Amino acid sequence: MTPATxxxxxxxxxRQICERVAKAEHAAGRDPGSVTLVGAAKAQPIEGLRQLIxxxxxxxxxxxxxxxxxxxxVDPAHRVAWHFIxxxxxxxxxxxxxxxxxxxxxxxxxxxxxxxDQRPAGRPALNVLLQVNISQEDSKSGLRPDRVSAFATQVLxxxxxxxxxxMAIPAPGDSDAYPAMAALMNQLRALTPGVDTLSxxxxxxxxxxxxxxxxxxxxxxxxxxxxxxxxxT
Length: 233
Ligand SMILES: *Cc1c(COP(=O)(O)O)cnc(C)c1O
Known about the structure:
One of its GO terms (molecular function) is pyridoxal phosphate binding. Its cofactor is pyridoxal 5'-phosphate. Belongs to the pyridoxal phosphate-binding protein YggS/PROSC family. The chain is α/β, with parallel strands linked by helices. It is 37% helix and 17% strand. An 8-stranded parallel beta sheet has the order 7-6-5-4-3-2-1-8. The longest helix is centred in the N-terminal third of the chain and has 18 residues, at 10-27. Pyridoxal-5'-phosphate is lined by residues 40, 42, 63, 85, 169, 202-204, 218-222.
């Protein structure tokens, strides 16, 4: 049927995304470089990831431990900050605490405790963001917005973790989600002034997110190309 797709030009895509981020920063009156770009590498071939890291991509996001295990060898000198952005199973916390610099998808006390306990001695505390189910979708993980402060208080007690802020994946078309996340971020700052990171915005909504105050965007398809389908060859 369709011929094999020509390989996606990740370097051209990277330039375009950097431009989109820069424009959005400018439009929002934000400082150039104030938004961190995380490449969401889920299930992507390692070659594109290697090219992006060589080109300067400094933050990589992973949803699944199996993908991460395949991707981590691309960065033996640990030049990149690795972010875990997917649902976390208890039996993966030790590996995540060992290999990652950030966890953006924290929404359970038990997982927070395990990550804190399992963070290797001698490494800086693991940076964490609390995931908020801001569009209150039954199918999505994340905290209810009214649970954020109570959970933040628990996380602040864990010596292996450093609370940096919030993460969310708004439902498509939920324009209220962006100001709601900005408000939650202000609420969290009132509780603990050290938080500095709002991870909001993906390929389709990064401009909206940056306008609302996102300091971190997680970009998958617009950076790596369409996600590979289960192999048919
Ligand atoms: C896949 C994914 C992204 C990137 O989504 P795109 O729409 O492909 O840019 C960002 N964040 C999370 C948590 C994801 O799972």
